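Narrative of accomplishments. A recurring question from our advisory board has been how the design workflow behaves on a single, concrete structure rather than in aggregate. To address it, we present the structure tokens for one chain from the evaluation set, followed by the sequence designed for it. No filtering or post-editing was applied between the two.
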């Protein structure tokens, strides 16, 4: 799902929010708030299945996307465990991330996720190589988590909870949920659930990081388990919690 620029029609991935219009239908050809929010949902990678529900696996990047997020760290851990040599371990992790970029080139698929992975692994490798500490390979993830938590909390504070921006368009609610205090509360709660998932990662992993090399195996293992699998679980719980209440069916009127 992407937002087109200029006057091109936008593709909402099958999601048509109520009252949504293309940028060309707004004054001065400027995108409306609905357009911007729909674009945000698309860029966040949220996908829905044929039944109209969030596709958890696709939203996490699919099998390939999950592998891209897991394997470089796993390769780093395995090589370092057997070699106890930081240099080859970092090179192996970078090579694993680069392979996924080549695979996407061959598949002619968007490179954004793979390139972001290479950049992330590159920064992590630079940090670990600079300090000479293997555990510093994982420190970038802590700051990324903190940034996400801050953004999510701000979205709740200003009454634009991220869960509403994402799920609202999957459910064809557009931005109408903001006019309903009950729906707004539900989406705030859904966003807090995602915050809790990210905070749990820090609570578990930061103490392992400060254990140094002694906690490296446990840190790397929890990074794998609390990465995509925990994200999918948190997203699923947030989806269930924010589910709209069933509307009572109106009794059919019979003719006199």
């Amino acid at each position: 799902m992407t937002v087109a620029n200029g006057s091109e029609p936008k593709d909402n991935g099958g999601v048509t929010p109520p009252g949504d219009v293309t940028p060309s239908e707004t004054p001065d050809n400027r995108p409306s708030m609905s357009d911007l929010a729909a674009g945000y949902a698309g860029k966040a990678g949220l996908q829905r299945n044929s039944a109209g529900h969030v596709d958890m696996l696709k939203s996490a990047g699919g099998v390939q996307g999950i592998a891209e997020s897991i394997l470089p760290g796993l390769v780093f851990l395995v090589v370092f465990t057997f070699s106890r040599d930081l240099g080859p371990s970092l090179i192996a992790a970078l090579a694993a991330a680069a392979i996924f970029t080549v695979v996407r080139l061959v598949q002619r698929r968007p490179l954004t996720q793979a390139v972001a992975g290479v950049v992330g692994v590159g920064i992590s490798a630079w940090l670990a190589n600079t300090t000479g500490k293997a555990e510093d390979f994982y420190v970038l993830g802590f700051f990324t988590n903190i940034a996400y938590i801050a953004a999510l909390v701000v979205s709740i504070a200003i009454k634009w909870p991220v869960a509403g921006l994402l799920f609202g368009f999957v459910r064809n609610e557009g931005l109408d949920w903001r006019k309903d205090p009950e729906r707004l509360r539900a989406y705030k709660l859904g966003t807090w659930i995602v915050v809790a998932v990210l905070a749990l990662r820090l609570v578990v992993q930061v103490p392992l990081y400060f254990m140094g090399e002694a906690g490296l195996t446990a840190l790397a293992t929890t990074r794998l388990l609390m990465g995509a699998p925990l994200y999918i679980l948190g997203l699923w719980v947030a989806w269930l919690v924010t589910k709209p209440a069933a509307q009572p069916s109106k009794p059919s009127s019979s003719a006199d």
